[in-house]
Each structure stands twice: as structure tokens, then as C-alpha cells.
Fold Phytocyanin domain-containing protein.
Amino acid sequence: MREGKFFNQLGILLILTVFTLFLVNKAISKEYTVGDDEEWNSQANFLSWSEKYNFTVGDVLVFKYVKGQHNVYEVVEGTFRSCDANSGVLAKYESGDDRVELTEAKKYWFLCNIEGHCLGGMRFSIDVKQASAPSDNTDPKNVSPSSQPHEFPAAPPPTSSSRGTLLSESWKTWICIMAFGMFFSLYN
């Protein structure tokens, strides 16, 4: 009889552990509105925007724009540099409220394929790194720009602020404390 109770408690512990890990993973990833307050349009400076942040696997890019006036293409480097989307397109987004999860540590290239928009500056590239333990400075507004050079013309600089979001460190600490508390309460 006691053995059955142990396995029930072990099952509950496993579920709580998986749920806690899910919450912590979601807490570490950030969501970025491309172009910040200016969103995805021909007035924003996407070179400047993309250099403000350090992107990691699990982060999400949110492209907000008027459907039909813009679109989002994820492309290969050659297509990005030439602004010719007849080939090298990895994904197309056209809803006006597109979410792109950054699932791999690699270089990503995005552009607007409406005629003249890419050559006018509606394109950017980002270098996504593996997620690591957060540092004391996790506020996206305080991240230093990337040192990687970009070889395309820039539009006027944005006047907006970051919309990157991150669950505070104290919440992650409380989640871990609660998980450990539940674990130890099962054996008392």
C-alpha cells in the first residue's frame, strides 16, 4: 500500500518538474516586436533595431504591419543581399501579425518582398546564439550592439523603445523554490 502512494507522489513530482522547466524556459525567452513602436514598415531603421539586441534560441520575433502593404520573407543570405526573392525563400508570412520563433542558433535574414521595400531598407539580419544562463543585465534596452558589420543602406533611426519582455529573475527563483518545496513535502 505504501509503495503505491510513493509512485503516485513520484508521478506528481515528475509532472511538477516538467511544468516548472516549461515555465522557466518560457521565462528566459523574449518576445521582440520588429521595429519596436514603429513596427514593420518602411519608416523604421531595421539595421539599428537589429543591432540593439542579443537574440537567443527560443526568442520570438513579432512582425506587425498592415496586411497587403507589407509581408515578411525569411530568406537565405544571397536573396537578402540581392533583394531578389525569386529563389532562396525559406518562409513567407503575410498575416499582418506574424510570429517567428527563433528555433536554431544561426544567422537569420528577413526582408519585405513588396516592390522597392527591401532595397529601401526593409530588411535585416540577426545572429541567434544558444540560450545561456541569464546575466544580471537581461533588460533588452541595456544590451550592447552587435559588432558584426552589415553591408546595406540604413533608413532613418527609430525613436521607439523596446518591447522585449522577460519574466523577472525573482519569479524564476520563486518557481524553483516552490518546486523544491513540493519535492521535499512529498517525503515528509
Remarks:
- The radius of gyration is 21 Å.
- Helices lie at 2-28, 46-51, 77-82, 169-185.
- Confidence is low (pLDDT under 50) at residues 135-170.
